[in-house]
Design goal:
The chain has about 1450 residues and is of the alpha/beta class. About 50% of the residues lie in helices and about 15% in strands. It contains 53 helices and 35 strands. Strands 1, 2, 3, 4, 7, 8, 9, 10, 11, 12 and 13 form an eleven-stranded mixed beta sheet that branches. Strand 7 and strand 8 form a beta hairpin. The chain is elongated and about 180 Å long. The protein starts with a helix and ends with a helix.
Length: about 1450
């Protein structure tokens, strides 16, 4: 088994060996040795400096006195910004005669005139101009030097990690036998370039006191005496030479010259002899910019040596080497994201600053894994996360290295680390002094070590841990309570099987408070009322029934009220009797014999008789005649029946014929409407049906046919078909029938004076049909209708014949009918009414007698005596009192028992209400129900349920949560401080203490010493500093600085954190080699190593040479980043999502382009003075190239100058990004440096560069130059994502650098020059309509105000608050923001959300995130607001309410 493990170890050691060898070779391929200074981007010989008062230089560096000598020996060069002047203007009379630009130093001017006066004037002016030329020419040369230094100052600032300014001397000119052409300084010394903005002035100083021998020039040269060269190097180190030492450097350079070649030639200046020697060294001091020697090659050499002897290789590298050993992970007890977001703390994670779920997860994962990958999209708090994580690791006694490809990502990191822990974190950055920072750390460490009682510190740590644990548990409990309290605003209230939302319940309570709040509390919530409405009413009525008198009286026996008349009936009866008594009850009593006493029958019959005689209309004699004929003769009736029958038949036939008439349109001449024509047509039909055609010959033989056909038509044609002849026959038959009906009508009706048939038009049947029914009813009236009514009347006892024969008129027309109508209408009604009155009176008297008899059978009592008296006296008022008293007494018999039963029953659902009625308290002692029982019970149930739900104040919970979070932060910070320093004090070694003290003493000697001893002391200080390094637990530096200062073979950190890992290439493995665990923070959607430089050619050969045995060797391209490498080998990234940098409209472009909308913008934009957030600015141009656009550059310069003059841009920082490479950025930078004073330039932190140079950086205002231009109708090729999505990544970085405002400056017509899918088109469109993307990604996360929110807003405004509804924060919307006294209060309304209970956790997550950003939140219960709006507003907003 051990053999197998050993074999595996050797295998992946071999793989690592290959990877690091490849990395070393790739580094050398990328950074070839420069042997000719012409290959540097900038060089400046001191001898070429112009002579001007603004330029001062050490004379030792000059070959003549062309520059002012420096008084201050600290500087080797000082260059002030010279004052330039304009040429004196010529007299006006000369201007038209002068040829040439007199302001141009190199242009000759001439006078074109023969006027002697003008010639004399010209000569005088020319003298002035020549004097100006003499002084201005060197000034302009000096300005060129100033601008060059300004340019390289900016370049060094942007590329500090990779470029350096050095002074060189001793130009080695050598063509070696190997064919290498060398022309390069052999002595090199680093210098610092600084800008004094107050002057303004550039100064160059030596950053190291000792020059170094540039031995890299000599690599690969075989015929060098190695021993002599080593001796020469040792000689240099012992004598601490500096380039500015003068003659001693001459001696040194001459020795070097002869060491390299016995025939070598040394000279202090270039002369003809130089070219006669194979090797020469020329004294020619110069400044130049070169790539830094990063030290990666040395570091990798150290690692390669270590791999051979070290089996303790970091597991992360083992994984890359292909060792797929399973790392046992404990089950992580991690809350889900939503719950984590509600918590700023975890018991095991010590974060002093607020953190979201993903940030906490990073620390959790690091406890269980050797490598954690963190994806940090732009502005999502990577630095904040690293600062928190660093503090946590320091509290565990871990050593930490925080590094990055560029320093920009690290500059603010140390300040974000908890203040008391900062001395434990040593930054080695451009603007920090390593010795100064180390001295501060040593002083703090010594003070802590000397003044700390370890036992007491341990006790304090334990106490704080317990305190923190308790606070966290309480916080979790409070947050759960908060969630439940909010949920109450969404959980329905069930009342009698119906659901009500709390807001619906609150509205009901508020709207129905008046008149419905009379049921006292408490009640049994959720239960039905234990009494029904009648029982409640009965209970209240019993209050008035149970008087003292009633208790005595109720013992007697009383008649059942249902068996006697009620007062209203008695009163009505008495009134009726009095009324009847006043009438003549004996009127025509003689006409009745044994009458039946059925009043209803009499009334109904009287109405029927009156209605029956209405048919007798004396104004229509013909109708009277018809009625009379109906009862006189049967023979006449038959004639009438024939008329009625013939009318009905005609009507039916006519209706049926209508459809044929419209279809055939038949015509028959009037003369042919006879039986003869019918016979003729029948003959024709028979003929045609035998399939014969009526021919002309046939018509000759049948003249009657011919006559008939000439007078009939069908559809305006002569008929020829059988159906056409049939229709014509039908028409004739109907015409004949109509003629017959008309004759009968006129004979029977018109003769009696009725209407004539001709009055009804050509088709009289349609009117006559109505008369047929009328005539039929009148003929049968007497025998059927009238006789039946008379029979009924006689059956009721009326003597009709006697009555009818009285005063009967005779011998007049229609005498019978007229007598009937007269007797009925004038005499019959009062006779029948008198009979009805007699029957009613007798019936009422019988009722009174029966009731008196009944009442006399009961025992004597007040009520009984009173009612008997009332009946006898027929006194309705007395009867009413007696009846009421009887009813009351009957109720009293069981009212006590019943009352107690009801009260007991009521107490099960409403105990206080039952007690109030029992004791007759106030309103509950009345004899009526105080209001609507159902409404009141519903009101009390809903109100009390809402009271119960709002017993706990949400605001008090939130305030407690805020207090707990603040306490946890303070306790955590205190715990971090004590725990981290305790670990440091416990872990520090004696060797580290001694090294630190020695280093401090050495530094003191350096500061107080002088002369040649200083370089030796500095060397000793550097040696001691390396020994002190292990005493510092946390280091912050760029990757280059790491390999310059730490030996991977001997330096190990518990955790290495690498930021902006997507920019770091495979060389960063040298730094990760130093970490037992690694945290890789980056973003594969941002620029990769490929974006950092030019394409590397020849790397494929290196892959083939070095990476034969490793998995997936093809992936190891120069653009492979450490982030990509970690992801490739299985590290699943934790993605940071909350974005805090840009205002939402700016970041949404990147959010859609690269992150599929996953970024959550949380920055509040309300205080941003620069609006709008995006501006699209089009430039008209004719001078653009592939890499530069002069007009765009000029536009951007003008815009920036305009911006910085406006108050809204005060204190804003500015940046310019070119999306087409460095050339445009440099062009804009040059123009800006000429247009803006250096002090102002520095104040606004103006930076011009590419996306890669901006990665890890940000500015308030960013201008993006698209550079590319096109002709008006030119369609450009699509600019897509590019190889390895490099273009997409550049756009992502560029569009995510602006905090407040982003300008897109372009020279294109997007509609004509750009195609769909072009990133330039997408960016321009986004700038033109920034909120379109916002809506597209989130689909409105913006909702309109709900009813509750609207009413809260109105109430707040009514109270004087300024309210902004639907305040956007990224894809979330705060219901409203209240502005008061300079504060913004976020208001959330609970209970009326469309999403309801499902969104509570998400809303709380957003609230927590915004509270971390300083927002104050209050929550309004909808159920509370609707019941008492004023009090709710006052309670929630507290002191702000008073301020408003």
């Amino acid at each position: 088994m051990k053999f197998e493990e050993s074999s595996n170890m050797e295998e992946y050691k071999n793989i690592l060996y290959q990877i690091f060898n490849y990395a070393k070779a790739l580094n050398e391929l990328r950074n070839p040795i420069v042997v000719n200074i012409k290959n540097y981007q900038w060089i400046k010989y001191f001898k070429d400096l112009p002579k001007h008062e603004s330029i001062q230089c050490m004379n030792v560096l000059l070959k003549n006195n062309q520059c002012e000598d420096l008084d201050d020996r600290k500087f080797i060069l000082r260059v002030k910004k010279p004052q330039l002047t304009e040429c004196p203007s010529p007299p006006e009379d000369l201007i038209t005669c002068i040829r040439g630009n007199w302001n141009n130093l190199d242009e000759r001017v001439e006078l074109v005139t023969e006027d002697t006066t003008l010639i004399d004037m010209f000569k005088v002016w020319e003298v002035k101009r020549n004097q100006w030329l003499e002084t201005e020419r060197p000034a302009r040369e000096a300005m060129k030097i100033f601008k060059e230094l300004y340019k390289i100052y900016s370049e060094l600032d942007k590329e500090y990690e990779f470029l350096e300014l050095v002074i060189g001397d001793g130009i080695l000119k050598w063509t070696t036998k190997e064919g290498k052409e060398i022309f390069h300084p052999i002595l090199i010394q680093n210098v610092d370039l600084k800008l004094n903005l107050d002057v303004p002035e550039f100064t160059i100083t030596l950053s190291s006191n000792v020059a170094e021998l540039n031995t890299v020039l000599l690599r690969g040269i075989n015929d060098i005496d190695a021993e002599a060269l080593s001796a020469c190097i040792k000689y240099m180190e012992e004598n601490h030479y500096s380039i500015i030492d003068g003659e001693s450097v001459d001696i040194l350079l001459e020795r070097i010259c002869h060491t390299l070649s016995a025939d070598g030639y040394f000279t202090k200046e270039i002369d003809d002899e130089v070219n006669n020697h194979e090797l020469a060294i020329i004294r020619a001091p110069l400044l130049f910019i070169r790539k830094k020697d990063t030290g990666f090659s040395i570091a990798i050499e150290s690692i390669l040596n270590d791999i051979n002897y070290n089996n303790n290789i970091p597991k992360f590298l083992k994984c890359i080497a292909g060792l797929n050993e399973e790392v046992a992970l404990d089950k992580l007890d991690i809350q889900d994201d939503a719950e984590l977001a509600l918590s700023i703390a975890d018991e095991d994670i010590l974060y002093a600053k607020p953190a979201n779920a993903e940030q906490i997860l990073v620390a959790k994962l690091l406890e269980h894994r050797d490598a954690v990958l963190v994806q940090g999209p732009p502005g999502t708090g990577k630095t904040h996360t690293i600062a928190n994580l660093t503090g946590h690791l320091l509290s565990q006694g871990k050593s930490v290295l925080i590094t990055s490809y560029r320093e920009k990502a690290l500059k603010v990191l140390r300040d974000k680390i908890e203040e008391k822990l900062q001395p434990l974190c040593l930054p080695m950055l451009k603007d920090t002094s390593k010795s100064y920072e180390l001295e501060k750390t040593i002083d703090e460490l010594n003070e802590r070590r000397n003044n700390t009682n370890e036992a007491l510190l341990i006790e304090a740590v334990n106490s704080l841990e317990e305190q923190r644990k308790g606070l966290i548990n309480t916080l979790r409990s409070k947050k759960e309570q908060l969630k439940k309290e909010i949920e109450k605003e969404y959980l329905p209230i069930i009342f009698e099987g119906e659901e009500y939302t709390p807001i619906e319940a609150a509205r009901f309570v508020a709207e129905n408070r008046e008149g419905n709040d009379w049921i006292p509390s408490p009640v049994q919530l959720g239960s039905s009322l234990s009494l029904n409405n009648w029982e409640v009413k009965e209970l209240y009525e019993s209050n008035g029934i149970l008087t003292k008198e009633a208790e005595i009286e109720c013992d007697y026996e009383y008649p059942d009220p249902s068996q006697i008349m009620n007062p209203a009936e008695f009163d009505e009866l008495i009134k009726e009797q009095k009324n009847l008594s006043s009438k003549d009850l004996d009127y025509r009593k003689d006409l009745w014999e044994n009458p039946r006493k059925d009043i209803n029958e009499l009334n109904e019959l009287l109405l029927d008789i009156i209605k029956a005689v209405e048919v007798i209309d004396e104004n229509k004699p013909w109708v009277m005649a018809i009625i009379e004929e109906g009862y006189k003769s049967n023979s006449i009736n038959k004639e009438w029946e024939k008329l009625i029958y013939s009318i009905r038949v005609l009507y039916e036939q006519s209706l049926k014929f209508k459809k044929y008439e419209s279809e055939y349109k038949p015509y028959v001449h009037e003369s042919l409407n006879n039986e003869k024509t019918l016979e003729t047509l029948k003959e024709m039909v028979t003929y045609v049906r035998s399939n014969k055609v009526i021919s002309k010959l046939k018509l000759i033989t049948k003249p009657n046919w011919n006559k008939t056909l000439s007078n009939i038509k069908v559809r305006d044609n002569i008929p020829s078909k059988s159906d056409e002849f049939t229709v014509l026959m039908n028409l004739i038959e109907i015409n004949l029938m109509r003629k017959q009906v008309v004759n009968r009508w006129d004979k029977l009706v018109a003769s009696l004076g009725g209407p004539k048939a001709s009055d009804f038009g050509p088709l009289p049947e349609y009117q006559l049909i109505k008369y047929a029914t009328f005539i039929d009813s009148r003929l049968s009236w007497y025998k059927h209708d009238w006789k039946l009514l008379v029979t009924k009347l006689e059956w009721l006892g009326f003597k009709w014949d006697t009555f009818f024969n009285e005063d009967k008129e005779m011998h007049q027309e229609f005498a019978l009918l007229k007598n009937i109508k007269k007797k009925v209408t004038k005499d019959l009604t009062p006779i029948i009414q008198a009979q009805i009155n007699r029957i009613n009176y007798e019936k009422n008297e019988n009722k009174l007698k029966s009731m008196a008899l009944l009442l006399n059978g009961y025992s004597i009592g007040t009520a009984n005596e009173l009612i008997i008296s009332a009946v006898n006296e027929k006194d309705a008022s007395k009867y009413k009192r007696a009846y009421k008293l009887i009813k009351s007494m009957i109720k009293c018999r069981n009212v006590k028992i019943r009352r107690q039963e009801l009260i007991k029953k009521l107490s099960t659902s409403a105990p206080e209400w039952a007690n109030s009625i029992s004791d007759r308290l106030g309103l509950h002692g009345v004899t009526y129900v105080p209001g609507d029982i159902n409404m009141a019970w519903k009101w009390r149930q809903l109100n009390d349920e809402l009271d119960k739900r709002s017993e706990v104040s949400i605001e008090s919970i939130q305030e407690e949560i805020r207090r707990l979070e603040d306490s946890i932060r303070k306790v955590t910070a205190d715990l971090l401080d004590k725990k981290a320093w305790l670990k440091k004090i416990q872990n520090i070694t004696l060797e580290e203490i001694q090294a630190m003290e020695s280093w401090k003493l050495t530094m003191k000697s350096i500061r107080t010493g002088t002369g040649k001893r200083i370089p030796a002391l500095q060397a000793k200080a550097r040696e001691l500093m390396r020994e002190c390094q292990s005493a510092v637990p946390a280091w912050i530096m760029s990757l280059n600085t790491v390999v310059e200062n730490f030996n991977p073979q001997s330096t190990k950190f518990d955790v290495v954190i690498i930021d902006e890992a997507s920019q770091a290439d495979i060389l960063a493995l040298a730094v990760l080699y130093m970490g037992k665990k690694v945290v890789i923070v980056g973003d594969d959607e941002q620029v990769s190593p490929l974006s950092e430089g030019k394409e590397v050619e020849g790397y494929e050969e290196l892959i083939d040479k070095y990476l034969k045995d490793i998995p997936n060797p093809h992936l190891y391209t120069p653009e492979l980043s450490i982030y990509d490498l970690a992801k490739t080998y299985g590290c699943k990234p934790v993605c940071l999502k909350e974005h805090f940098r840009c205002v939402a409209p700016i970041i949404q472009f990147s959010n859609k382009l690269s992150y599929k909308g996953r970024i959550l913008p949380l920055r509040d934009h309300s205080n941003v003075s620069c609006k709008p957030p995006l501006i699209c600015y089009k430039v008209e141009t004719n001078v653009a190239t592939e890499r530069t656009n002069q007009d765009e550059a000029e536009a951007i310069v003008s815009l920036i100058k305009s911006c910085i003059s406006k108050p809204e841009y005060r204190d804003k920082s500015f940046g310019v990004i070119s999306l087409a490479g460095e050339d445009q950025a440099k062009l804009i930078e040059d123009m800006l440096q000429g247009a803006i004073e250096p002090a102002e330039y520095e104040r606004i932190k103006l930076l011009c560069g590419t996306p890669a140079q901006f990665q890890g950086d940000e500015r308030d205002i960013i201008f993006i130059s698209l550079v590319k231009s096109a002709k008006e109708d030119e369609l450009l090729p699509i600019l897509g994502y590019g190889p390895h999505e490099s273009t997409k990544k550049r756009f992502n970085v560029a569009a995510s650098r602006a905090r407040d405002q982003m300008w897109i400056v372009h020279s294109l017509n997007p509609d004509k020059n750009l195609q769909e899918g072009d990133l330039r088109l997408d960016l321009i469109r986004h700038a033109e309509t920034p909120y379109a993307l916002d809506s597209e990604i989130y689909n409105q996360s913006q909702e309109s105000c709900s009813l509750l929110e609207t009413e809260v807003i109105n109430k707040l405004r009514e109270k004087g608050f300024k309210v902004i509804p639907q305040w956007p924060v990224g894809d979330w919307y705060i219901d409203m923001v209240v502005k008061v006294a300079g504060n913004k209060i976020a208001v959330i309304c609970d209970g009326d959300k469309h999403q309801g209970i499902d969104r509570i956790e998400e809303d709380l997550k957003y609230q927590s995130a915004l509270e971390r950003m300083g927002w104050n939140f209050v929550r309004i219960r909808g159920s509370k607001f609707y019941r008492n709006p004023d009090e709710t507003i006052k309670e929630i907003l507290g002191t702000y309410y008073m301020q408003a």
